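Q: We require from you a single protein entry containing the residue sequence and its fold in token form, and nothing else.
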Amino acid sequence: MCGIIGYIGYQEACPVLLKGLHRLEYRGYDSAGLALNDGSCNLRIYKCKGRVSELENFLQGKDISGTIGIAHTRWATHGVPDNVNAHPHESQSGNIVLVHNGIIENYALLKEVLSSNGYVFKSSTDSEVLVNLIEYVKNTNGCSLLEATRQALRQVVGAYAIAVMEKNDPDHIIAARQSSPLAIGIGKGEYFLCSDAASIIEHTRDFVYIDDGEMAVISRNEDLKVLKLDNSEGKINVRKLELSISQLEKGGYPHFMLKEINEQPRTITDCIRGRIDVGNMNVTLSGFTFNKEKFLNAERIIFVACGTSWHASLIGEHLIEDLCRIPVEVEYASEFRYRNPVIRKNDIVIAVSQSGETADTLAAIEIAKKSGAFVYGICNVVGSSIARATDSGTYIHVGPEIGVASTKAFTGQVTVMAMLALAIGQAKGTISGEDFHRIVRELHNMPETIAETLKSSERIADLAKIFTYARNFIYLGRGYNYPTALEGALKLKEISYIHAEGYPAAEMKHGPIALIDTEMPVVAIATPDHTYDKTASNIEEVKTRGGRILAIVSKDDRHIRRIADYCIDVPVISECLMPLVVSIPLQLLAYHIAVYKGMDVDRPRNLAKSVTVE
């Protein structure tokens, strides 16, 4: 969602801030802005609705001098996307300026109090309320900006990552976080502030991640200072981020999404590297190895996740129940956090998130930990909030995912879940040696299998032209590939804006078949598995009612080819790993349809890459 960039040092701040804002564009936003101080107590704010490129055009001819500044990309929550509601926001006097990610839940009450004390608001945002609250505390108590910010935040209910500057102080930025990511990059004689470390990776590899309830004082000529809201001193732990600039560029592809789809042979290689030993037939995940007894004694496993990660978790449910014989439940984190779930001390809660910053999933982790459960994380971003909040876990190691519609993170998550299930199953003795060896070999060879599957891209692009007319789609799958159908439908609606729904194929006759006519394309996943004959019958039912069938089938399939209007071939492997293969053509289909419809594939409307607010 919203993004924050800040800089203080010896360089001109504006180019650094703009470059960082461009790096954050993948997160989803609707306006952008920045604030600069030229060192002579001149605080200038420039902001506008639209893309960062529009902000750059707006800056032409303006005074953009200054070696300290903060910048922001906004994803609208309170107030429509426009120039007034865009960040940064200044206090009524113009002496304090702030950028804010998150939501202040009690902003209406705070606004009422401030209004009664003479404050008048220009915007509809909760963020303007916060900057005026800081000013009110500062003026009332005659304290420093740091102390005013600390006291103000103690009155706030909600989530935030903020950066605050003062007109009369060109040498300090105050930052703070609660349930929204924030990191500080340490350079030579300069500091960088960001909500995503990847946005400033060309400047430094050394980062300090701010924890919930912490504030940071970033000074021009002083060491970094971190304190807690209770005024006690916080720890400064410098982490080195291993990331290359090339991972953040398109590399010759027209879109990040297509690049990331095609990266999957390499990202799966990175995911399994050092974890699968085919020679000795071992699967080693340190998060499991160091907590083996907890998994062996687990009475139940609960996955908590959102969106694509929830679909991956449904596949994880199949894997663990099949190979480990442990009962599994899969919960939407957004629902889990607001009911009264039964969590026992012998339960394991697995939190799944690409970014490691998903607000609902973090809240679910907190509930699980309070209940005494062991919490295991599966995420992509090293040093993320979920990685720090969980008891143990596994990184998927697929590299930064810039396209909003998740592709390589999905296959990385499923790959980790497969390895985890294999490790548990072998330790429990619930998987036969023959099955274990077969699945391990196939997982080891998965990069080559996916590379083979990617060769169908041109064929899928040709098919995509046929379906650009469609206003609705139905995706069908059974068993392991029912979640894959859900994920395929999600990809299509995310980037092409075509309404699409995934169903278990057998459920069609329980209602959805009423939607079938000649204008309704149906994507049917019909690869060889124990439900193949049943799926074929379900496809027949759709076909006899005029539905247009696009089937995902094996290369040697004969039966469904006679029924379907169009077919996409995929290699055949063990049923439990087929989602990794089948997801590739579904990703490509969504991509090519969206491209032919002229959509902004990497930055679909209304969506954010990392959902850090409710």
About this structure: The first strand starts at residue 3 and ends at 8.
